[in-house]
Structures are given as structure tokens and as C-alpha cells.
Amino acid sequence: MDILLIIIALVITSAAQMYVSSSYNKYNKVSIKKNISGFEVARAILDKHGLNNVYVTETAGVLSDHYDPSRKVVKLSSDIFHGNSIASCSVAAHEVGHAIQDKENYKFMRFRSAIIPIVNLSSYGGYISILIGVMFGSIELVWIGIAFEIIILIFQLVTLPVEFDASKRATEELEKLSILTKEEVPSSQKMLRAAAYTYVASVISAILQILRLILIYGRSDRD
């Protein structure tokens, strides 16, 4: 059962990554009719919402795009920043969706930001507690480690509505500003949906990991 759970988690995670990569590669080759870059898309949506204090900058990496709420910066990878594809405008609009959430004090985003320090501690404390607990035969430490892993799972669960809402906002803005034609919108939605599946896969993998630990050390605790 333990091995089966590991295999299932690996398959789900790998499948999600392959799906988002293939979708990105596909839609990154399809130029939008309006022929504007990801930077221009982001700037247009930000300006519409009065977010003139939010900057759009270029960052290294592939699909390393993110919004930094502490610095009020939308960071777009080079392909997204300069590109004029379905993928470029979709990802750029999605990241701006997070900036709009920040402006509107979107509750799930606020909660996620509030628990980040605890999550950072848990990401280190979880495995360390489990490792030390296993080394010294302390079931109590192992259960503390599992509790840390559950905190990380809660963070991932809260991330889901944040990401899905940002994609919803992205689609709405792309349509309202006529950045995409009616024929292009479905392709954009597919691109955004593929990206969202990676977060769903992470949640499922985390649940399976916690379940595996409970099954292993629950038996040890009874013994």
C-alpha cells in the first residue's frame, strides 16, 4: 500500500506537469490577432483597475511568473513578457489577477499570506521531526512532523481558490478589454486550466503523502 501511494502521487504529479508543459508549448506558438505582448496585456489590465503603483518586470526562468504582493510587482518570464501568444497574454493576465485580488483584499489570498511564516517553518520542521523521530524511535516526534505536513496541506488547499479566482479574473479582463477575440478565449481558458491542474495535483500528492505516513506510523504506534 505504501509503494502504491508513492506511485500514484508520482503519476499524478508527472501527468499534471506534462499537461501544463504541452499546453504551454502549444499555445505559446499561437499568436493573438491583436499582436500585443504579455507586458502590454498586464499593463493594460493594471491601468484599467487604477493599479499604477504596480510594476511589471521581466524575470529569469520558464513559467516563473508570479505576483509579489510585498513589492507590488508582477514578474513575468522572458517568453511571457515579450511574447504575443495565447500563452503569453493568458499567463500575464492571470498574474495581474493576483494584483487585483491584493487590491480588493481577497480573503483567501490574505489568509494564505498570513500563514506563510508558519508554512515556511513547517516545510523544514516536518521532515526534520520525522527524520529525527525515525532515527531515535520517537513516535511523538513523527506525529509532530505529520502535523507540520498537514499545515502545508492547508496552505495548498487555500491556494486552490486563489489560483482559480485569478484565472477567472484573467478571462474576464481579456474579454472586457477585447484583447482576445471570441475564437481565442477558449484556447486561453484551456491554457489557464492546464496550469491550475498542477496545483490540484500538488494537493492530491500531499494528501497521499500524509495518508502514507499515517498508515506507516499509525501501525508502529499500535505495535
Could you describe the 3D structure shown?
With 223 residues, this protein is mainly alpha-helical. 74% of the residues lie in helices and 6% in strands. It has one domain. It has seven helices and three strands; from the N terminus they run ααβββααααα. A hairpin with a 4-residue loop joins strand 2 and strand 3.
Keywords:
single chain, about 220 residues, mainly alpha, three-stranded mixed β-sheet, 7 helices
- Global mean pLDDT: 93
Helix content, binned percent = over 70%
How can the largest sheet be summarized? 3 strands, mixed
Strand order of the largest sheet: 1-3-2
Task: Tell me the Rg in angstroms.
Answer: 20 Å
Low-pLDDT stretches: none
Continuous helix count? 7
Number of domains: 1
Order of helices and strands: HHEEEHHHHH
Quick recap of the structure?
This protein has 223 residues and is mainly alpha-helical. It is built from 7 helices and 3 strands.
Topology of helices and strands:
Elements: H1 2-27, H2 38-48, E1 55-59, E2 66-68, E3 73-77, H3 78-82, H4 86-103, H5 107-136, H6 139-176, H7 185-222
Parallel strand pairs: 1-3
Antiparallel strand pairs: 2-3
Helix pairs in contact: 1-7, 2-4, 4-6, 4-7, 5-6, 6-7
